[in-house]
Amino acid sequence: MTAAKALAALPPSIRVGPNDIRLVVETDHNTKYWGLYDSNINRITLVHSICDPQHVVEVLLHEISHAIYDKAKMEDSDVEERIVATFSVSWTQIFRDNPWLTKWIAKYVK
User: Using 50, 70 and 90 to split pLDDT, how confident is the model at 51?
Assistant: First the structure.
């Protein structure tokens, strides 16, 4: 699977806490970031130029982690970035090395 296919397969939104967060793939961006969570408009934007599907997963988990952090009303942006980066990379590795895990989660969270 390519990164483009992974991005195209994203649903229009993801629910985080009580909110539906829109998922948008940006094709024309002027930012140094691969993704961005905007709490003011409940949107996660990912850039189309992400190079591989594992990176798409990691970036999406990173931005979802920002949404979780925001919805939990935590503060301190420097600490937030370090926590979110650690968790998104770790979750991506866990999902990649344990493909049974997502199927198991999907089965039991219905």
Answer: confident
